[in-house]
Specification:
Rossmann fold; four-stranded antiparallel sheet; Neuraminidase; mainly beta; about 400 residues
Length: about 400
């Protein structure tokens, strides 16, 4: 089979119809209920990097979804101490109290240029100390961008800052996904002229090709233990679901659906099942299979259901309902389906959802008027989560975000 003969439906599912570019900034517009007020007015600053630390810390705490930031010294929780930037060094003393009780009292010393990274760290430590919740401020997001008409992989902090370009060749890149330990990213690229699967080391940016079979190689997704990957290959005819060792090797076939196409696999948290997309029912829908190939269709609302990401809170997906694409979460334990954000709310379609490691936030692409950006969504089952936060705001287009596991 010619490698260039690729299903139009598969290309649409994987690329989600976007081409992108620009530099990432942050706009914070947060609402929500049942939050605690926190004041940073008692944290004094001296120097530009100290001011950056203070601003980043406040934004991180607000974005967590657990706090409102008070502009005065009044708040349920008070952050006090000092942050000084002198001689290229950043010295921080941070105390957190709610009156009589102390939650955190620590000192930090870092290079001034790491002010944002240190703020992310401190924000996560405050959230853990006060709420007992693991934060996401120190995590990162990999995404696909188009700058000046060239598509590449990029990496940024969870708030959109520290944007780094990972690839330089401007080839087509599709569906990057993290390894469980956060050391690698698996993705599909056309850098060879054909769709092959690659793995990149996030520290060195070195890459290696692990699947270049005849036909389509796509949909790479790491198993929870990092030892195996789920992939979509068309080497035996139409695109089918396979598993293989993470370092490459002989694939094991899980589906055999004849003239239909599979796409977008994602492992269950336990690693014993895989959810994937198939057009076996004419339009793309979600199916689940165990590792022996026993599969079933998920009964979900929506004329189309694509781009699943399976986390402890359920399967987040893009679903077409009433003519719009929105982001929905299916709780596999309760059999409950929840709308996180619908396109009809603001005329922006939602695509490419990816769970954050806190199992509360979701990164996704939102598209409207032939323009796409990455947003952060707040998924709270009671429906009281924060409004969507636009992560990428500069000139260009961004899509296919994937949130790091740590």
């Amino acid at each position: 089979m010619m490698r260039a003969l690729i299903s139009v439906w598969m290309v649409c599912v994987m690329s989600c119809s976007a081409v992108f570019g620009g530099n990432a900034n942050v706009v914070i517009v947060k609402t929500g209920a049942s939050k605690s007020s926190m004041s940073l007015a008692g944290l004094t600053t001296a120097g530009a990097n100290a001011a950056l630390f203070h601003k980043t810390l406040g934004n991180d705490l607000a974005r967590s979804g657990y706090f409102t930031i008070s502009p005065t010294a009044n708040g349920t929780y008070l952050v006090t101490g000092s942050c000084t930037d002198a001689g290229g060094k950043l010295s921080v003393r941070c105390q957190v109290r709610d009156g009589s009780k102390s939650y955190l009292d620590k000192t930090y010393s870092e290079e001034g240029k790491t002010a944002r990274r240190l703020a992310h760290k401190v924000a996560d430590e405050i959230l853990l100390a006060v709420k007992g919740v693991k934060g996401i401020a120190s995590t990162r997001i990999v995404l696909v961008g188009n700058v000046g008409g060239k598509k590449n992989l990029y990496l940024c902090d969870a708030d959109g800052g520290n944007l780094v370009q990972l690839t330089q060749d401007g080839a087509i890149y599709i569906s990057p996904r993290w390894s469980p330990d956060g050391s690698s990213i698996i993705y599909t690229s056309y850098r060879s002229g054909y769709p092959d699967i690659y793995v990149m080391n996030t520290a060195t940016h070195e890459w290696r090709r692990i699947a270049d079979f005849p036909g389509l190689n796509s949909g790479g997704s790491f198993s929870p233990d990092g030892k195996n990957v789920a992939v979509i290959l068309s080497k035996d005819g139409n695109p089918e679901l396979y598993t293989m060792r993470a370092n490459g090797g002989r694939p094991s076939r899980l589906t055999n659906t004849g003239r239909v196409a599979e796409a977008s696999p994602s492992w269950s948290p336990a690693g014993d099942q895989i959810v994937y997309v198939s057009n076996e029912a004419r339009l793309p829908q979600l199916y689940v299979t165990d590792l022996s190939g026993n599969r079933k269709r998920l009964s979900l609302p929506g004329t189309e259901n694509v781009a699943p990401d399976w986390g402890p809170a359920g399967i987040v997906r893009c679903s077409r309902q009433q003519g719009h694409y929105g982001i929905y979460v299916y709780d596999t334990a309760k059999g409950k389906d929840t709308n996180v954000i619908a396109a009809k709310d603001d005329n922006l379609d939602g695509e490419d959802p990816s769970w954050a490691p806190d199992d509360r936030h979701i990164a996704c692409t939102r598209t409207g008027g032939h323009h796409s950006d990455v947003y952060i969504l707040d998924y709270v089952t009671e429906g009281q989560g924060d409004a969507p936060v636009r992560l990428t705001t500069a000139k260009g287009e961004w899509y296919s975000p994937s949130w790091s596991p740590k």
